Amino acid sequence: MPTTSVNLTDSLAEWVAQQVGSGAYKNASEVIREGLRTLKQQDEKNALELDLMRQKILTGLNQADHGDYSKRNVKKIIADTKKKIPALD
Description:
By secondary structure, this protein is mainly α. The chain contains three helices and no strands.
């Protein structure tokens, strides 16, 4: 397995040591690897969500190009949404 040197702030180094000391991880490398796996998963999730948002925007733009859009103004849309979801009041 390749190795990489990482400089940590004092507070991160202390937290890593606490994680190892608690027995949750065998060593600092496990803590760092777990953190990187979590960061990678979050980045992948964000990329998927961004792609979905872009698809929805393109769908909306295509619908608007074909005249398929709401004639309501923003205030009416908000009011209608609040009627459907009372917790938004």
